[in-house]
Design brief:
Blueprint lengths: L22 H9 L3 H29 L1 H8 L2 H24 L5 H14 L3 H21 L6 H8 L3 E6 L2 E6 L8 E4 L8 E6 L2 E4 L1 H4 L5 E3 L4 E2 L4 E5 L1 E7 L5 H15 L6 H24 L2 H11 L3 H19 L2 E3 L2 H7 L4 E4 L6 E12 L6 H11 L6 H12 L8 E6 L3 E6 L2 E6 L11 H8 L3 E7 L2 E12 L3 H10 L4 E5 L4 H11 L2 E3 L4 H13 L4 E5 L5 H6 L2 E5 L5 H6 L2 E3 L6 H35 L5 H7 L1 H12 L26
Parallel strand pairs: 11-18, 11-20, 18-19, 20-21, 21-22
Antiparallel strand pairs: 1-2, 1-3, 3-9, 4-7, 4-9, 5-6, 5-8, 10-22, 12-17, 13-14, 14-15, 15-16, 16-17
Length: 668
């Protein structure tokens, strides 16, 4: 993009970059998100339920109520209650067993079977209760059903205005044929991929290509489905429709990434695989040594605690709740587990690393008699009534310097070039290099353009007076956050953008990260897959529709949600509900703290259960008390996990401006 553009009146609409400020609504919804409070309530309600049940069971056992119930209630009723209550879990255990897989629920099912065989029906019912309660907690923390593909489809126009037999006809998009001519008016989205054969317009294609600046589309330009025509109109020769468009491929890639993402093995399930043989050995030894079936059942019941099933989800729900209060929406515990192992972070540029809107960075006078303020004042006056994003940037720069603007006369939009007005009887034009009328680019302008900046020339009566440079600027908190990611052990960071090489290099160089430019959505997802094939745990950070496939494919996708595309939020696994890059290293720390808490939970459960095994094997624990004793590690898990509810802000660590930049990962 050279800064050349058409200007003029147009309809306004909310585009993917949220230029109208609609993203603030999302931030407001985030502030009202009840997840944090609900998770805290659920966690403590869970503890209260356990406490009440345990006290009731212990009291009932001591008073002999359980023996009376066992005699009074026929076994078919007990069996039906156990089977009905535990059937979903039993089915899951059976399927896992057929796959030769042992899970934490396998342990609990064995304890349940032992209680049934021993006739300890109250203990069996209690085990089912704990199994279902733990299962509910796990279900609550699981990822909600995604609606990404449906949301994607809704972003594309469903109809197109096609030229047929000399007139314009509105038809469903599926009836448009390759080679036909489509008309797109101001404020509309392009319904197809195609080549512009007539008209001029400013088109925002950031949602698809990731280009930070709206592009000037004229005859010969290529446009994509779902691009937003902000100014002007276009006649487009159709080259692709529906699923064959770039936008259609985005939909397919999101769906494929969702289908092929492998599930994460839980820590508790891994532990269960080697713990089960130990329990069976102790139970067998107890039966052979004592010959007491109840003691054997008590061993299996106390050892096969539901705490193995809740060790992970309770810690996860605490982290999810605390994170929601901090503006982090985490869609499932599996992503915390994977994020804790992250080695590669790939980043989008527009709207993610940058603010997603142009800002005037340089004002250079080309006339020795004029200062920078006068050049900027003339440019802002000429652009006073233009709706172009660059015009807004010029007016914003003038406002920062508190410059007084004059009233322009005879405003004229020059399609594909810029604007021209009359000011104090003189002609003043502002626009791209086409306004230079074949003159060579001034050396300073060539230098600015080499830095990836978009240029606007200010011309009075045909003579260049100055040049303004605009650029999508880096978010102010990005450098510190990137340095913190390195300190946290991320081995490689890389910028992936649909923008050009100069702009990519200008953004990446100050951060000391690698970059790839001119990427379409399928290119970004290919980069993610490349690192995954090489054994890396990949985190993708983005905000636009064009990032959705890579966000879904990555081991963990993080969406900059406050100003980003709703689709990116749906496709990602974690969403930052406010534009604060400090949340990125913070969520990595949260993931690591959560997994450390899970390991402590499981370690405590192991020690507790080994003690319980010894007591049950020696005959000190009847089955019902053994079942109630399962709650012991649950209390420990709740207390340990509750620490995650108090997660504070980012740690303030000593920082050096000379942090080393790691070399690129070796090509494998």
């Amino acid at each position: 993009m050279n800064g050349e553009r058409a200007t003029g009146p147009s309809s306004t609409a909310c585009d993917s970059q949220d230029t109208c400020g609609c993203g603030s609504a999302l931030a407001d919804r985030a502030a009202a998100n009840p997840l944090a409070g609900f998770s805290r309530t659920l966690l403590w309600a869970f503890g209260l339920i356990i406490a009440v049940v345990v006290l009731l069971i212990v009291a009932a056992e001591q008073l002999g109520v359980l023996d009376v119930l066992t005699q009074f209630v026929p076994w078919p009723v007990w069996f039906a209650a156990v089977l009905t209550g535990g059937w979903p879990i039993f089915r899951h255990v059976l399927r896992a067993t057929l796959r030769r897989k042992i899970t934490s629920h396998t342990l609990m099912t064995i304890g349940l079977a032992a209680a049934i065989v021993a006739g300890a029906w109250p203990a069996a019912v209690l085990i089912v209760f704990f199994m279902r309660l733990a299962d509910y907690i796990e279900y609550f923390t699981a990822e909600h059903a995604r609606q990404a593909v449906r949301d994607l489809t809704a972003l594309a126009p469903e109809t197109a205005r096609v030229e047929r037999e000399g007139r314009e006809v509105q038809v469903p998009i599926e009836q448009v044929q390759v080679g036909e001519t489509v008309i797109v008016r101001p404020g509309e989205k392009t319904p197809v991929d195609g080549e512009v054969i007539g008209g001029h317009a400013t088109v925002n294609q950031a949602a698809i290509t990731g280009e930070s600046m709206p592009v000037e589309a004229g005859p010969g330009a290529r446009v994509f489905a779902a691009g937003f025509v902000q100014l002007g109109h276009l006649r487009i020769r159709v080259t692709a429709v529906g699923k064959d468009t770039t936008f259609g491929r985005v939909i397919q890639l999101v769906a494929e990434a969702e289908q092929h993402r492998a599930p994460i093995q839980r820590v508790a399930d891994k532990f269960a695989a080697w713990y089960l043989p130990v329990v069976v050995t102790v139970a067998t030894g107890t039966f052979l040594a004592s010959g007491k079936l109840l003691a054997t059942a008590a061993v299996l019941v106390v050892a096969c605690s539901c705490s193995f099933a809740i060790a992970t989800p309770v810690a996860v729900i605490a982290s999810i709740g605390a994170s929601a209060r901090r503006g982090l929406l985490i869609k499932g515990g599996r992503y915390l587990e994977v994020l804790a192992k992250a080695t590669v972070v790939v980043l989008d540029k527009t709207g993610t690393l940058t603010l997603g809107r142009p800002v005037i960075t340089d004002v250079i006078p080309l006339d020795a008699d004029l200062g920078a303020d006068e050049v900027l004042r003339l440019a802002a006056t000429a652009e006073r009534y233009s709706e172009h994003p660059l015009a807004e940037a010029v007016r914003g720069a003038a406002a920062l310097r508190e410059l007084q603007l004059a009233e322009p006369q005879d405003f004229e939009a020059i399609p594909g070039m810029g604007v021209r007005v009359r000011l104090d009887g003189e002609s003043v034009a502002v626009g791209g290099r086409r306004l230079l009328a074949g003159e060579g680019l001034p050396p300073i302008a060539a230098e600015l353009e080499a830095q990836g900046k978009t240029l606007l020339f200010v011309i009075r009566n045909g003579q260049p007076l100055g040049v303004l440079a605009a650029m999508d600027t880096l978010r102010p908190d990005v450098p510190e956050a990137v340095a913190e990611l390195r300190r946290l052990g991320v081995k490689h960071l890389e910028l992936l953008t649909g923008d050009n090489e100069r702009t990519a290099a200008a953004i990446a160089a100050p951060l000391g990260i690698h970059w790839r430019a001119n990427l379409l959505p399928e290119d970004k997802i290919a980069v993610v897959k490349e690192y995954q094939r090489r054994g890396h745990v990949v985190v993708m950070i983005g905000d636009g529709v064009n990032d959705a496939p890579a966000l879904a494919q990555a081991d963990v996708g993080i969406a900059m949600g406050a100003a980003g595309s709703p689709l990116a939020i749906e496709a990602a696994h974690i969403a930052l509900l406010r534009d604060d890059w400090k949340l990125v290293p913070e969520v990595l720390r949260i993931a690591r703290r959560t997994m450390n808490t899970v390991k402590i939970n499981i370690g405590f459960t192991v020690v507790y259960n080994l003690a319980g095994l010894a007591l049950a094997a020696l005959g000190f624990l009847p089955p019902a008390i053994a079942a109630a004793a399962q709650a012991g590690p649950d209390f420990g898990i709740l207390a340990n996990s509750a620490r995650l509810l108090r997660q504070g802000g980012s740690r303030q660590t000593a920082r050096s401006s000379k942090d080393p930049v790691p070399a690129a990962l070796p090509k494998e």
